[in-house]
RNA sequence: GCCGGGGUGGUGUAGCCUGGUCAGCACAGGGGACUGUGGAUCCCCUAGCCCGGGUUCAAAUCCCGGCCCCGGCCCCA
């Protein structure tokens, strides 16, 4: 009698065989694309010194971390993402490596937050980091890769929305706002309130009518670059802003060359947390009715490596949220039917050791041919064994009893048609392959 | 951290408001009817009131606290 039932830890999930086949399918598609773009797989430790994450994001981030003291008194945290670890690794060992450094990872992350739709405490991300190039080509490369990653999973109904931290900073300056983060958070919430409420909120924030007018101009800067950029050049007057806009114009030209232009949009309202991003930021949105917002995001972080004690090194990257992507793929019927069951069940009739041994030999023969084969381990009677095969959708059953064995044969049963034939034991593997084909 | 809704066998649920029959049903699982042939039927078995406290003669049921789940807020690297 169990004294105590141990449950899963809050915000975690058990992944069952049927979940794992789907995930593996998605991971493999994404991995293929990462690889053909020349990214190499890496993995850093599951936990790091808490300091690493504090250095990047400040003290308040600790309450969103799975942070604890180990037995040696070290303050450590489970990784909330891989970007910090990658930057640390780069500073530790790769500062003199040939540039660019192109790394990817597919692994789990941990954040101590309240679970809700599309949000767990342990979750998986597939992401890349491209370190060493300050050029807009590098931004284009990762954005194109992100788009192609989604496409490889069959997703088509999505957009990659591109914003820019520099322009947001310029915007805040134009309005004379010091708390640019606060302003952007407010702008982020615009869709959750009515126009009147939004105007009220902006007034409460301290903006005058002219500034509010400008905020609305900014929000309208969303869509295809041909429409948005001309308006943006009107709204932004500073030299820095104009230069940044020129880069974005070029970025979209490059995306045309990559062949992914159709999926990319401008959205200058994107803030992406404001942690360490320095210019181009982006996030992917897929239309869905599951209440899932962004399915991935990224951007340029040109001073993070410096923060970690490295030489100033530009970098950019993104991460795809697997737990958000998979339900969307599933709801759109984009995941193929992946059968889990074995191809063959070998069943014996009778209790003689000789028959059981022959059944094992047949099973092994099939396995050597890389056919997924199992034999009846429960010792069920033939009738029950057939019911079992039917229930778990094993398409072929090989039956071996005294009568078959006496002739050196076994019976193969096609579980779908019900047809059976007697076949010499040595020829089973060949026959099974033909029947499965 | 805050707010709302919920927690009954492995799964889905009835019962809760109006405390009191062995907590009912279905599916799944195991066995049998049928000792070499399944996807049909019948029978049997396994297995449950999230945890702790309180009220009461009596708690799955009412009250309090906790934990967990679903969703929302904050936040979202």
Report what the structure shows.
Helix content is 42%, strand content 21%. It is an alpha+beta fold. The protein folds into two domains: 17-331, Bira Bifunctional Protein, Domain 2 (BirA Bifunctional Protein, domain 2), CATH 3.30.930.10; 344-436, 3-Layer(aba) Sandwich (Rossmann fold), CATH 3.40.50. The strands form three sheets. It has a nine-stranded mixed beta sheet with strand order 1-5-6-12-11-10-7-9-8, sandwiched between helices. Strand 13 (344-348), helix 13 (353-368) and strand 14 (373-375) form a beta-alpha-beta unit. Helix 1 packs antiparallel against helix 4, helix 4 packs across helix 10 (239-258) and helix 9 runs antiparallel to helix 10. The protein starts with 16 loop residues before the first helix and ends with a helix. The mean pLDDT is 93. It binds one RNA strand of 77 nucleotides through helix 2, helix 14 and helix 15.
User: Strands of the biggest beta sheet: in what spatial order?
Assistant: 1-5-6-12-11-10-7-9-8
Might you state the CATH topology name of the largest domain?
BirA Bifunctional Protein, domain 2
Tally the structural domains. 2
Measured by DSSP, the beta-strand proportion falls in: 15-25%
Q: Which CATH architecture of the largest domain is right?
A: 2-Layer Sandwich
Low-confidence stretches: none
Q: Tell me the overall shape.
A: elongated
Fourth-tier CATH superfamily name of the largest domain: Bira Bifunctional Protein, Domain 2
- Rounded mean pLDDT is 93
**Helical stretch count?**
16
Helix content: 40-55%
The CATH class of the largest domain is identified as Alpha Beta
Radius of gyration: 29 Å
Q: How many β-strand runs?
A: 17
Category from helices, strands and their pairing: alpha+beta
Q: What kind of sheet is the major sheet?
A: 9 strands, mixed
Compute the separation of the termini in Å: 48 Å
């Amino acid at each position: 009698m169990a004294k105590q039932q141990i449950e899963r830890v809050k915000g975690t999930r058990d992944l069952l065989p049927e979940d794992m086949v789907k995930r593996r399918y998605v991971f493999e598609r994404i991995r293929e694309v990462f690889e053909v773009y020349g990214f190499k797989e890496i993995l850093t430790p599951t936990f790091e010194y808490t300091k690493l994450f504090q250095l990047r994001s400040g003290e308040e981030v600790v309450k969103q971390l799975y942070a604890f003291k180990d037995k040696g008194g070290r303050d450590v945290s489970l990784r909330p993402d891989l970007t910090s670890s990658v930057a640390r690794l780069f500073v530790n060992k790769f500062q003199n490596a040939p540039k660019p450094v192109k790394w990817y990872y597919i692994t789990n992350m941990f954040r101590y937050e309240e679970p809700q739709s599309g949000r767990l405490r342990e979750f998986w991300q597939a992401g890349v980091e491209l370190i060493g190039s300050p050029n807009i080509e590098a931004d284009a490369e990762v954005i194109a890769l992100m788009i192609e990653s989604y496409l490889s999973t069959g997703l088509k109904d999505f957009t990659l929305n591109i914003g820019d931290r520099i322009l947001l900073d310029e915007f805040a300056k134009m309005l004379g706002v010091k708390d640019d983060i606060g302003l952007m958070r407010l702008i982020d919430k615009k869709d959750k309130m009515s126009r009147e409420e939004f105007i009220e909120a902006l007034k409460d924030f301290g903006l005058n009518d002219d500034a509010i007018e400008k905020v609305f101009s900014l929000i309208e800067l969303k869509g295809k670059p041909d429409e948005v950029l001309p308006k943006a050049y009107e709204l932004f007057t500073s030299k820095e802003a104009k230069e940044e806009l020129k880069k974005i114009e070029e970025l979209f030209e490059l995306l045309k060359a990559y062949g992914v232009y159709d999926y990319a949009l401008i959205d200058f309202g994107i803030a992406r947390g404001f942690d360490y991003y320095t210019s181009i930021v982006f996030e992917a949105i897929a239309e869905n009715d599951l209440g899932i917002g962004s399915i991935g995001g990224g951007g340029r972080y040109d001073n993070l490596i410096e923060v970690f004690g490295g030489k100033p090194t530009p970098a950019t990257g993104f991460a795809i949220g697997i737990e958000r992507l998979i339900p969307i793929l599933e709801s759109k019927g984009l995941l193929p039917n992946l059968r889990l069951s074995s191809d063959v069940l070998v069943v014996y009739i009778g209790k003689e050791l000789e028959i059981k041994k022959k059944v094992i030999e047949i099973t092994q023969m099939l396995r050597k041919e890389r056919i997924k084969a199992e034999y009846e381990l429960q010792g069920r009677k033939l009738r029950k064994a057939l019911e079992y095969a039917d229930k778990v959708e094993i398409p072929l059953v090989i039956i071996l009893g005294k009568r078959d064995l006496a002739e050196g044969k076994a019976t193969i049963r096609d579980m779908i048609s019900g047809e059976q034939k007697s076949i010499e034991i040595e020829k089973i593997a060949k026959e099974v392959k033909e029947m499965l084909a």
